Amino acid sequence: MENVADFKEIIDVIKANGGEAFKRCFQCGLCDVVCPWNRVRNFSMRKIVRQASFGMTDIESEDIWLCTTCGKCPQQCPRDVKQIESGVSLRRIATEYGVFPTTARPIRGVRGSLMGEGNPLNEARKNRANWAEGLSVKTFTEGTEILYFPGCYLSYDPRLKKVARATANILNRVGVDFGILGAKENCCGESIRKTGDEEVFKRLARENIKTFIDHGVKKILVSSPHCYHTFKNEYTEFMVNFEVVHITQYLFELIHEGRLELTKKYGKKVTYHDPCYLGRHNGIYDEPREVLKKIPGLKLNEMPESLKESLCCGGGGGRIWMETKKGERFSDLRLEQAIGTGAEVLATSCPYCIANFEDSRLTLNVTENIEVKDITEILQEVI
Q: What's this model's pTM, rounded to 2 decimal places?
């Protein structure tokens, strides 16, 4: 490392950011065996952990920015090294020193957009609720049962707005008492935190929490597993505890209670992709599948790697904002697996996964072979 920080500084910052877990590693290499990066290039989390335990990490290296925080290595680790938390601690060091390799430099622009407009997409805050135009979606006020929090990508991305609209249509059909906060919302902050920027995460989180409390929010319905994870597991660090429900859980409840009737046949072969932050990180595997199984005429074919072994799409850990070279995209591998099941539709329930799979459909030139759908989009067609 070229005079970015000396040995003592590296060790002190690692300790301050929860990196003590590095010392537990006994270099068994199981993390490297299961890491999806090793399907497309040479990468070693074991090496990073080893170097960090001696304060020898090169924070100018691209390697510390590759991890998608997919959660596969922690579930295999026999020593509880906490690879995700440990890896994020290295990114915090790089962020504090302002050191970003070329592939990670877009994070600087993302940070500015989050600070200025509350979203990572350089979109105007005032337009955050535009996705709901023409729908009967009210502004959340105290006493409303559910706050629907679509998240940044569903609020702004042209493809993913369709998911937000499908969700609102389903909720309206059932008569759910819900509302949105639109321009008063910020990004949940999950992904920027995984890039090591605690300052921006805490600012976004505190502003969101104040907004939720000021409006009397008690129950939050989310479409993104990343929002689900951070509201449920990370906002508790600020001594608050909102009821957080992912849309697949809520749809399962509505169907189970008989409130949501599925009357039309779908008649297509479907395979389901488990998003990392819904499945491995939060254990939500059954509800999405049970919803799909309730759809008349739908045939569900599982991919070779499913449930806790699901192959990451590549979008976690802030990678959704970074460029990934052609030939190194996990979403390409996953889409090929989906096509291999004979499915006509790849269903999932995460905006990052949908964005990456849609890109892969184009780059692999398989737009005629398979569609990518959020579960809500499929349900909208059969109610």
A: 0.95
